[in-house]
Amino acid sequence: MSTTTLRTPLVWECGFCDDETASPAEYYPAEVPGAVQLDYARAHGWGPFWLEKDPSVYAFMEDKFWCYRAPLSIGGDQEGAVLVFCGIDYRCRIRVDGDTLYEGEGMFSELRLDVSRYRGAPHTLEVRIWPAPKVPPVREGRDEARESCKPPVSYGWDFQPRLIPLGIWDEAYLEQSAETGLLSCRVAPEVADDLGTAWLDAEVSVTRNTRIAFELWDDEGNRCLRRERQTEDCRAGCRLTVVSPHLWWPAGAGPQRLYTLRVLAREECLIEKTVGFRRVRLVMNAGEWDLPDAFPKTRSTPPITLEINGRKLFAKGSNWVNPDVFPGRVNEETYKQLLSLAADANMNILRVWGGGGVNKEPFFHWCDRLGLMVWQEFPLACNEYPDKPAYLQVLEREAVSIVTRLRSHPCVVLWCGGNELFNAWSGMTDQHHALRLLNKVCYELDRRTPFIMTSPLYGMAHGHYRLLDSPTEEFITKLAEQKNTAYTEFGVPGSNSREYLLQFVTQEELDGCRSISDLNRLMPFMAAPIWPKLFEQTMCYYYDQPGTAEQVLERSADLQGMAYKSLFEEMRRQWPRCSMAVNWCLNAPWPLICSENLIDWPCVPKRAFEDVKAALRPQLASLRIRRQVYPAGGEFTAEVWMLNDAFEEMPGDTVEVIGRCGGQEQELLLWTAQPTPPQSNQRGPGVYWRLPDNGADELTVELRCRQHPEWISVYRYRVKSPEAYRRSMTLNNL
């Protein structure tokens, strides 16, 4: 943010004690943003937390009272002085020289506190933080978080260890200005249905009455509008009207045009905020409202097709989880790297999973600029949240802060109550107080952006998370028969590379492994045993039992990549009935040996990343299959398709299908494809090949487009001897 307002970082130290009235026996340097656990570990010479063989060494810290302190010095010539906390985790009290400025709980509420009366000599700033909230006497795990707004993932999940952060996890600084201090700035954009006019409502609160100017600048450096207002009771607001506004579009649909709002007090710039104009609606999926015979007595399928600026589009992307078990460690560079990879993979949407909470401001900054739509969930997941007034009060305050902060970002196209709240383990309904409250907050503060209660809703799909749906039935086989409106979670496990693993284990340790379970036991955090077990069963189906670590790593990487490619393309073929494909998941918070993610921690793309990138190209030739393993000498059948989710016509082309098995190569098909209209798919002819029985263990099929080589697609499938194939069909261990 470029302003004439001075931001001064604070020099912090922290320590812990056993009750809220005591003082720490020892203080040590603290990094902000960060977490008290990291400060303690650093002060006591611990190694990096991701190499810690037993993360439970951090466990005692979650039950302590923590105290941050810093000297506070305000220049005597600065009329406005505001103490800013962008995020404190979780319950806290803020004092200056013993005077209480704030006390409350919540992780995502920005605090701006007027401290102009403390000008002069240095003062002592103290932030006291209570132990992590828990619901006694429930068993250790996510249920402990069900009466707080703290993300439940930190209490332990199948892909993340139990490490419950506490502390000042987002930016904290002293903001000083010559004229006045800014206490709040609320911005709400809106676009007319005909897209010809846009409005920007802006309101500020300041520390003293003054003259305020609101300026709107476009992304070419032109000032479009300026309005001046005199504050009353230290508040001022205005509505800026923009005729023929530049619109923001998702990646692949149009440019990402943005504006900058500048707020000035007597020509001193207090704040700059990026805003964008777009109209978003959820519309009914094709074929889902044709037969409402039992309505309203039965569950009805809700709309989930995104329409941006009047254009329906296929949303393709991934689920986003916290990039680190300690969110305080995540900085703008981390966000930029991960989000740039998502954009490079031809994604246009990220679902921010409710178990992990809400990201810092740079996440949304880069999503705006990269054209990545954001499905934003509130920090609720896999729990039944109560109707207790104390909980609902905190939830409302957090929700108001989240929506108010993020509604100016055009990338936020969908609000969601949380993850898997209607499932058997949560047991909630749309009548639960928490979800009705979130619906109300979103409607009142950002009705231009749709809200849904949870994911999945009726018609959507979560799962599967493996290649096999049953002992002998592949996921891809059933997928072609399904009629879901959206696939908002699905996954394929795969391990990472040898080079990656050698950052955490020795060569000798690695060479001693014979299975995924062996590798999993080497890692600092052992993922839930279900994932290695499922993966090993899958390996037995597609291959003989691997005998070396090298075989495990190579085969799993290949399986994950090819499976994701086939699944994403099949989901795209189901457009327009299906309007979304979002895999579980993009990234990882911790080094994992076997998981469904596409990018390893901290920012290392797996082999499958390239296969997904190929599958999500706007235009490509695609092969529809029913399985990924075949018997030698058996039949290979498939269909050729042209996939086009771009907004331009896909020209006609000559498609050549080449099959390779062992040393044998054969042209399987030569097809002249007609032009494919925008946002549609074209079904082509079938492909048939009697596979040779020549001892090969892999079948490669290549689709070449003579006029457009960028549309090429390559697929790799498993071939097994008839005897081994029959053994695979009798597996009964899933």
Features:
TIM Barrel; Jelly Rolls; 6-stranded antiparallel β-sheet; alpha+beta; Immunoglobulin-like; 6-stranded parallel β-sheet; globular; single chain; 734 residues; 4 domains
Helices, strands, pairings?
Layout: E1 6-9, E2 12-17, E3 28-30, H1 36-43, E4 65-74, E5 80-85, E6 88-89, E7 92-96, E8 99-104, E9 111-114, E10 120-129, E11 167-168, E12 172-177, E13 182-191, E14 197-206, E15 211-218, E16 223-230, E17 235-243, E18 259-265, E19 268-275, E20 280-283, E21 305-308, E22 311-313, E23 315-320, H2 332-344, E24 349-352, H3 361-370, E25 373-377, H4 389-406, E26 412-416, H5 433-446, E27 451-452, E28 460-462, E29 468-470, E30 473-474, H6 475-479, E31 486-489, E32 494-495, H7 498-501, H8 507-511, H9 516-522, H10 530-542, H11 549-573, E33 580-583, E34 594-595, E35 599-600, E36 604-605, H12 607-615, E37 619-624, E38 629-631, E39 635-644, E40 653-661, E41 664-673, E42 680-690, E43 698-705, E44 713-720, H13 722-728
Parallel strand pairs: 23-24, 23-33, 24-25, 25-26, 26-27, 28-31, 38-44
Antiparallel strand pairs: 1-12, 2-3, 2-4, 4-10, 5-9, 5-12, 6-11, 7-8, 7-10, 13-14, 14-17, 15-16, 15-18, 18-19, 20-21, 21-22, 29-30, 32-34, 35-36, 37-39, 39-42, 40-41, 40-43, 43-44
Helix pairs in contact: 2-3, 4-5, 11-12
What would you say this structure looks like, in words?
The chain folds into 4 domains: 6-175, Jelly Rolls (Sandwich); 182-275, Sandwich (Immunoglobulin-like); 299-460, Glycosidases (TIM Barrel, Alpha-Beta Barrel), CATH 3.20.20.80; 618-734, Sandwich (Immunoglobulin-like). A hairpin with a 2-residue loop joins strand 18 (259-265) and strand 19 (268-275). It is globular. With 734 residues, it is of the alpha+beta class. The strands form 13 sheets. The chain has a 6-stranded antiparallel beta sheet with strand order 3-2-4-10-7-8, with helices on one face. Strands 27-26-25-24-23-33 form a 6-stranded parallel beta sheet. It has a 5-stranded mixed beta sheet with strand order 38-44-43-40-41.
